[in-house]
Amino acid sequence: MRLGVPMSASSSDSILRFKLKRTLEMLASKEGRGTELISLYVPPGRRIHEVMANRREEYGTASNIKSRTTRKNVQEAIDRVSQRLKLFKEPPENGLVIFCGAIPRDGPGTERMETYVLEPPEPINIYFYRCDAKFHTEPLLEMVRERDAYGVIVIDTSEAVVATVRGQRMEVLQQFTSGVAGKHRAGGQSARRFERIREQALNDYYHRVANHAYELLNKVSGLKGLIIGGPGPTKHDFIEGDYLNYMFKEKILATIDTSYVGEQGVEEIVAKSQDVLRGVRYLEEKKLVQKFLYEIGHDTGLGIYGETQVRRFLTAGIVDLLLVSEKMNMLHVYTKCKNCGTVEDALIPQAGFVKYEQDLLSTTCKKCNSASLYVEETKDLVDELIDIAEKQNANVALISTETDEGVMLKDSFGGIAAILRYKAS
Ligand SMILES: [Zn+2]
Fold it and tell me: 199: which residues sit within 8 A by CB, 6+ positions away?
């Protein structure tokens, strides 16, 4: 998902989805030592005590596992899952997903038990338990993948269909037939009368389709725009005539020629519209980064970048728009000294974390000089900044690297930039 449009962070479920997506990607990258990582999906409405009973059965089954270490790890993971389940009287409104298992840190014997409890952004409809070498994140990932919806109307003089498209997925909402006769009149009818009746009928039909389309598509959450398609010139008559609500007309992104109407026509549009939709999405991102580049280029004092500056102005509540590159993979790591309690922090690339933790063993505390440093907490830098933005009511835009501007944000400005509400120092 890409949030091209700036949004008030406090009200945005897109940001929650983005964070969830990052968490899931992190979880998907983890691997167990053997088949000992548990994924549990509990849909809303499922009784917790029933889920607990199933876990007790799994615990029993696990006693048959031959490898002693795997058996111990699986049973411990099931125990932890049960402990988490106990905290709920019933599943939350969208259900509950728990991932738990022993993750090797650095080779055999270095596993540490990790537990993640997630609430999905929309109701899950599966009850699912797996014990595998990896976490099963696909059902949740599917949920966060593509949220922007586009309305599609495919129309010719005989039939029409109203549908939505999200990513590659389409959903037909309603089909219509016009009941309008073809262009050839029956014998004996006056040509002019025939034409008049036919036009009236078409007019009624266009109104009917337009009104229903408005009603249906207005209810679609996250509707970003409209695509009108169909074979021949009918789609243009439909758009140019006074049928569609004017606010809807402004949402039209493209008209696309198709060979078919009906569901097949929608399929053609899904295939042909990907470029158009990408263009729309990235145009918004481009505009936002260009705005930042303008502030920098004209030295207005409103454009700032770099983690230190951005964090400072964000915390002070002066940031209007926070721009972060989706490709940022930095961790904010807090280390603590066991001996004197001194806490230090550092920003490191995610990929360098294992080495960082290893190196820590041979590093001494700056204050007391003892070699007893350990990682107390790690935070995803992007998540951390978005959290501050949420508190301060700043807008947030996540920028892909699909545009030149996005690449520039990442490579030339360290992936973090902001536009201030007013000039400040
Ligand atoms: Zn110390």
Answer: none
